[in-house]
Amino acid sequence: MIALLLAAATTAIWLYLLLARGFFWLGKERDDNLLPGSTGTPDRLPAVIAIVPARDEAEVIARNIGSLLRQDYPGRLSVVLVDDQSADRTADLARDAAKAAGATERLTVLQGSDPPAGWTGKLWAMDRGFLHVQMEPTPPEFVLFTDADIAYEANDAVERLARGALVRGTVLTSLMVKLRCESFAERVLVPAFIFFFAKLYPFAWVNNPRRRLAAAAGGCMLVRREALEAAGGLARIRGALIDDCALAELMQHQGPIWLGLTRRVASLRPYPEFSDIRRMVVRSAYAELRYSPLRLTGTLIGMGLTYLAPPLLAIFADGSAQLLGIAIWIAMALAFQPTLRFYRRSPLWGLALPLIAAIYTAFTVESALQHRRGRGGAWKGRFQAGASAERIADA
User: Fold this and answer.
1) pLDDT tens figures, 177-232
2) 175 φ, ψ to 5°?
3) C-beta of residue 127 within 8 angstroms of C-beta of residue 233
4) Close Cβ partners of 340 (under 8 Å, ≥ 6 residues apart)
5) CATH code for the domain defined by 27-272
6) What's the whole-number mean pLDDT along residues 338-353?
7) Which residue has the higher pLDDT, 387 or 296?
8) What pLDDT is attached to residue 194?
9) Residue 292 DSSP SS3
10) Rounded distance, CA 299 to CA 190, Å?
11) DSSP category for residue 174
C-alpha cells in the first residue's frame, strides 16, 4: 500500500511537470524566436553600453572584451569594465584586447572598491559601472550587464538582443548562455543545471506578462536604462546573492521581461572537476530557498518524491507500483532529451537523471550547512550570504 501511494504521488508530480508547468522541458524559448515575424525596427539601433564587472579574470577577459567590441552592431556600442580590485592583469589584458580590436576608444576601465555594508561585491561593481553610464553626456537607451567569463560568439548577438527588446517592448531581455560541457563533470551536471533552472523558472511563464514569475540569467542581461532608474537602481537589490533573478523581479514592475536559451553567447568558465561545479552551486543554492530550513525540508522531500522514488519503485516494488515507477522513470528520461540535444549529449544520460538530482540535492544541503557556519556565498575571497537574506532591499 505504501509503495502504491508513493507511486501515485510521484505520478501526480510528473503529470504536473510535463503538462502544467509551461512545458519547460521542451526548451522552446530561444533567441532564434526573439524576433517574432517582421521586426519593424530601424536600421540604426539605440546606443548600448556593456558593463562588465570583473575580479581576477585574466584568463577570460580578453575574449570577453574582444567579442563585445567586434560585434556588428548598427549603432553605438561601447564597454565599461569595472575592475573589482583584481590581483592579476585583468585591466591590462582588457586594454590589450580593445587595442587588438581597433577599438581602444570604446573601452573604459574603472577601478572598483570594497563594497559597503549590505552590498554584494558583484552588484557594487555593477552599480559603479551604471553610475558612470548615467553620467555620460548622452546616456544610452540600453545597458548590457554581462559577466567577464562570457563570449559573444555570434557577431549579431547584441543586435538580436536590442531588436528583440524594441519589438517586444521589454525592459529586461536576458539570455541563458550556453555553458561549457566538455569535461566529464560538465557532461554529467551541466545539462541538468539548465533543466532544473527551467523547471524552477519556466521560460514561457517568465515571458508571459500576465504571469508574475520573474527570472533572468546574469551572464547576459540587456536592460532599459530609464526603466532601471525608475525602479530605483541597483541599490534596491544591493544585498541579493542571486542578483540576476532579483534584478528580474525588480524590473518586472516596470514592464515585460524575456528570458531564453542561446547558442550565440557562451560561457568561458571551465568546470573540470565535480568540486568546481559543487562550489558554484553551493554558493547560492540555499539563497534560492531564502535561507529557510522549512523550504530546505520541503525541497528534500520534493526532490526525493520527484527523482528518487521512481527508480526505487522500478527496482524494489512489484505490481502496479513497479509499473508506475518504470513509466515515470522513462518519462523523466524523455523529458530530459531536449536539454541533452541542446548540449549534444547522449540520450542515455536521461536515465541517470535521478542520480544527478541526488548530487544536486547534496549540494543544496551543503549550501545550507555552509551558511550556518557563516561561510555562505563564497566567491573569490568574499563570504556574502550574510548580506543576502532579502532579494530586494527596502521593497
Assistant:
1) 999 999 999 999 999 999 999 999 999 999 999 999 999 999 999 999 999 999 99
2) -115, 130
3) yes
4) 191, 346, 347, 349, 350
5) 3.90.550.10
6) 97
7) 296
8) 98
9) coil
10) 20
11) E
Structure confidence at residue 341 (pLDDT): 98
**CA–CA distance from 365 to each of 292, 300, 352, 372, 388 (Å)?**
12, 9, 20, 11, 18
CA proximity to 328, closest of 336, 232, 210: 336
Q: Quick count: other Cβ atoms within 10 Å of Cβ 42?
A: 11
Burial of 240 from C-beta contacts in 10 A (0-12 / 13-18 / 19+): buried
**Phi, psi dihedral angles at 374 (to 5 degrees):** 80, 20
Instruction: Determine what percent of the chain is predicted with pLDDT higher than 90.
Output: 89
pLDDT in tens, 84-105: 999 999 999 999 999 999 999 9
**Angle value at C-alpha 140, between 153 and 38, nearest 5 degrees:** 60
Q: Which three cell numbers stand for residue 141?
A: 537607451
Scanning 225-318, the segments in alpha helix (DSSP H) are 225-230, 243-251, 274-288, 293-303, 309-316
Please choose, from the candidates 223, 215, 263, the residue with its C-alpha nearest in 3D space to the C-alpha of residue 240. 215
Secondary structure element (H or E) that encloses residue 50, with its range = strand 48-54
Structural domain boundaries in the chain: 2-24+276-387, 27-272
Q: How far apart are CA 297 and CA 258, in angstroms?
A: 31
**Count helices and strands in the chain by DSSP H and E runs:** 15, 10
Instruction: Return the H-helix or E-strand segment holding 111.
Output: strand 107-111
CA distance 179 to 268: 8
Question: Which is nearest to 251 in space by CA: 222, 278, 292?
Answer: 222
Which residues on neighbouring strands pair with residue 146, listed in sequence order?
220
- Those residues whose C-beta lies under 8 Å from the C-beta of residue 305, and which sit 6 or more positions away, are 6, 9, 10, 13
Angle at 59 between CA 383 and CA 222, to 5 degrees: 70
DSSP string, 222-237: EEEHHHHHHTT-GGGG
Torsion of CA 152, 247, 243, 156, to 10 degrees: 0
